[in-house]
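Exercise 3.2. Students should predict the tertiary structure of the chain below and write it as structure tokens, then compare their answer with the key that follows.

Predict this chain's 3D structure.
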Amino acid sequence: MNLLQGKTALITGGTRGIGQGIAKMFAKNGANIAFTYISSEEKAKIVEDELNAIGIKAKGWKSNAADYSQAEALIDGVITEFGQLDILVNNAGITRDNLILRMTEEQWDEVLATNLKSAFALSKFALKPMMKARQGTIINLSSVVGRQGNAGQTNYAASKAGIIGFSQSLAKEVGSRNIRVNVVAPGFIATEMTSELDPKVREEWLKMIPLRRMGEVEDVAKLCTFLASDMSTYISGQTISVDGGLYM
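Answer key:
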């Protein structure tokens, strides 16, 4: 189905994992895609070509999600290139795991800037064209860790919990302009990031999941597609988990 036909979406961190999965599913549903990457221009070109081959227009921007000025330049670039911005997916995120007694100030600041400050900056600048058009959708990626915490991830948990409070407040601010803001909280999803986990840690996580399996990137992308489409026009300010029942 072309649930997003005629819409333009910006997805941060769109060259791997969940971000790339969202970009592909949005494209298959007719959306033109702008996405960001932080390092590999070669990988970005591959993703750009794959998306264009679906039959939509796609373009990647090298942009640091944690940089306020780059966020403004990115939104301006997307509007210049596509003429509109209907959907923003704040997906870019990093981890710098450590027990708090060993965690450095840099590890704290880097995670909060990339995961939380980026959502503030990009939402702020994306809202200008959305408010002018009197419509738009913002989807912010949180995590099951932002809802129930996890030892060794106080910085990550704080950033992802912050996303939820930020999104609820923003939903109340912009709802009268027909702009919706929702949060997707993935659980244990099979990505490059989770593949680096120790097998014993992975097994312990699986024991806690009622469905007894890891999720797939497509599971998250399907929910984001629904929230970005006109099938969810009366849903805003919500946090929806995609975690096999891990958080209840």
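Discussion points: Residues 8-238 form a domain with the Rossmann fold fold (CATH 3.40.50.720). Residues 105-133 form the longest helix (29 residues).
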